[in-house]
Amino acid sequence: METNYSACTSILIGRNATVDGSTIIGRNEDCKAAWPKRFVVHEQQRVANRKFCSKANGFQLALPTVSAKYTATPEWTSQDGLFEEDGINEAGCAMSATESTYANQQVLKFDPLVTDGIGEEAMVTVVLPYIKTAREGVERLGQIVSKYGACETNGILFSDRQEVWYFEIGSGHHWVAQRIPDDCYAVVANQMAIQTIDFSDHQNFAWSAQIVDFVNSHQLNQHKDNFNFRLIFGTQTSQDTSYNTPRVWDGQRQFNPEIIQEPTSQTLPFLRKSSRLLSVYDAQHFLSSHYQGTPYDPLGDGPTNQRHRFRPISLAKTQESHVLHLRPQLPAAVANIHWLLMGVGAQSTYVPFFAGLTDTPRAYQIPVTATYDSESAYWTFKLVGVLVDPHYQQFYPQLVAVQNQLQTQFQNLISETDLKAQAIKPEQLAQLATEASHTAAQQALTAYQSLAARLITAATDLSPLNYQQDLNL
């Protein structure tokens, strides 16, 4: 079986660091350039004696009888597992899994990964439907990893309206989690990120039961004055400085431009306080970033030897990107928004889906093959990117115009939906959420289908077989 894991980029923002008092988590799912995703709603179910059996590695887990309603973005095929990746459940809890990371060999020598332990493929499916808070998500996943082991080292994002947590698996059975302070943000890029653990602070940290004894008994901590999870369990290699740390640097550059740092630094902090309050659009912009305004932009005009020096955040291999936006005050059905972008962040658009929706548009539930399908939302957005790539200078302004137009339409739709939600009965909220979500999806699809038609038409005259004839002949 081909290994299928997400080499992603993540962002987490506490509620006092946002302009609207919301909590925000988001991630790019980066794996393959042509590997479609779908968007679905799982309704609440009551099934006794249910067991999860992974097609990816044989991991098995007995599940509770009742599973909550939740949104998810599974693969186009379940042949090698579900990979549901991200979603919001009916209790107002959000989860994104996973941020692939790497443990050092010294740690893995004493606590190796478990072949049939839990992995990315299973996590959302066996955790999100069974939790009511972010803290419960940490507890449930922690219990699973400790008991059954993990087949991968990963980072997992949890949030509810009050709290944001980041969970990291460091070896076969050991893990830690940290609550993101309300006034802070964190960006993570395929490298273990959590730093000093305060074992006296159970409100803001969680950890596997025997982790201190494990580290001490195997003499893994070279800094006896503190317990730095990143240094003990993670890696600090030359590959990290070209593939991972520059993306963290880029995020911190955007939110703290006043702080001067090097993109190859191995000491970039896990947590930062932004120089301004952040919005959901800041999170989306970060996940769509490719080092704009720096010499490292692959699409820029910097020196040739710099433009492809670092791995950008927005990547051709992005399957989908999501920002899970949990807003205060309004009813959960419309307050919680699953912003979903299919395809490459810099070339696609984030569509707002209200978490209370009962069904997703058909275009988001197909295709059922890996090849191009003109009816598929995934392929509609990917097509525009394919058309823009070879003629970037000519077509990019048209792409940006459509992205900006849609962002305005979406914001207007959200404002209208918020007003309607305050004037209707609770039992009508699901229908409102569904109708508004379908409207947003259709706006995006129509705009991108029209843009693709214009770009195809314009591209017909950009062939290398063109020839400029002398007008005097």
TrEMBL record:
<dbReference type="GO" id="GO:0006508">
    <property type="term" value="P:proteolysis"/>
</dbReference>
<dbReference type="GO" id="GO:0070004">
    <property type="term" value="F:cysteine-type exopeptidase activity"/>
</dbReference>
<dbReference type="Pfam" id="PF03577">
    <property type="entry name" value="Peptidase_C69"/>
</dbReference>
<dbReference type="InterPro" id="IPR005322">
    <property type="entry name" value="Peptidase_C69"/>
</dbReference>
<keyword id="KW-0224">Dipeptidase</keyword>
<dbReference type="InterPro" id="IPR047804">
    <property type="entry name" value="C69_dipept_A-like"/>
</dbReference>
<comment type="similarity">
    <text>Belongs to the peptidase C69 family.</text>
</comment>
<protein>
    <recommendedName>
        <fullName>Dipeptidase</fullName>
        <ecNumber>3.4.-.-</ecNumber>
    </recommendedName>
</protein>
<keyword id="KW-0378">Hydrolase</keyword>
<keyword id="KW-0645">Protease</keyword>
<dbReference type="GO" id="GO:0016805">
    <property type="term" value="F:dipeptidase activity"/>
</dbReference>
